[in-house]
Design a protein that fits this description.
The chain has helices at 25-32, 50-56, 66-73, 77-85, 89-99, 105-118, 120-127, 129-138, 143-148, 166-169, 183-192, 231-240, 255-259, 277-283; strands spanning 154-158, 175-179, 197-199, 213-219, 241-250, 264-267, 291-296. Helix 10 links the parallel strand 1 and strand 2. It folds into two domains: 25-127, no CATH class; 133-296, Vaccinia Virus protein VP39 (Rossmann fold, 3-Layer(aba) Sandwich), CATH 3.40.50. Helix 4 packs antiparallel against helix 5. By secondary structure, the chain is an alpha/beta fold. The radius of gyration is 19 Å and the shape is globular.
Length: 299
Amino acid sequence: MAGAPPPGVLRGGPVSTIFFTYTVRYQQAVAAAPPGSERFRATDLARLAQATLNLLLQPGPAAPPLEDVAAALAPTPDALHRVASALPPARGERLLRLSQRPVPAEAREAAARRLVRGLFWFLAYELEPLLWDRLALAEPIHPALLEALPVHGRVLEVAAGSGRLTALLEGRARILVAIEPCRPLRRLLRQRCPTAHVVAGTAHRLPVVGGWADLVCSCAALGPDPPLGGEVVRGELERCCRPLGTVALVSPEDPAWWQQRGYEMTEFPILEVKLDPDLEAFFGPPQPPHVLLLKRVAA
C-alpha cells in the first residue's frame, strides 16, 4: 500500500463551511432517482457519516430543505437528533424546531420519499458500496477516451470512488493521489489500487497544495452545483493543477456548463453494456462514461 502522500502534496487547515442559495436542483434529483431509492428509508440518512451529513445538508442547489428532513425524521427522534448533531449548531437547532411542527402523516411520508430520492446516490455510496462498485466496474470507460487522457507525472484524481478510473491511471502516473470523501469507497479503493495515495477529502476544498498536479481528473462525479460541483469545485480543480497542466473530466454532469468555462469536449461511441438484473433493478439502465472535457490551465 502506498500510504501517506509524499511531502509537499497535502495542505493543512480546517475544513470550511460554504453556503449557497437554494434552487430547484433537489427537485430534479428527486424526479430522476433510480428505482433502487425504494429500498432506502428516511432513517437511513442517520447512518451516513457526520461529515457527509454536514456537507449534504448545507443550504445549496442540491440540498433537501430542512422542512423535508424534519417532517421525515420527526417520528424517529434518535435519527433526527443524530442528523441535527452533524449540522452547525444554529442549523441543527432549526431542524429540531421544525420537527415540532404538526405535519399530516401523508405529508411526512411524501417528505420521506423525496428525501431518499433526492439523496439516493449518497446513500448508495456509503450504505451500498459493494453494489456501487459492481456498477462502476460494469460500466467501463471507453478505451479511446483513456488514450486521450494526458496522463504523466503527478496525477490527482478527485472523487475517485472505488477506483474505476484510478486503476487505469495507476500504471501511467509517476505519483497518483486519489481523493475520496466516502470511507467505504476509500476502503475498496485502497484494496484495488495499492500504489495510489488514497486521501479523505471533498472536491469543494481539496487537501492538496496549489499547482501540484500535472493532471487533475475526475470520472462521472462532478457537475454545475454543490456539493459535487459548481464554481467552488471548478476553482479547486484548477488551483491544484500546475500552470500549463490539464484538468480532465470524464462524463461530468451537464457538460455544457463546463464548456462555457473553457473546457473542450470530445464524445466517444457509447459502449454496449449489459448489467446484471439486480444492478439494473437498483440503478436503472447503464450509462458508461464516454464524454471527455479538457482544459489547459493558464500559465
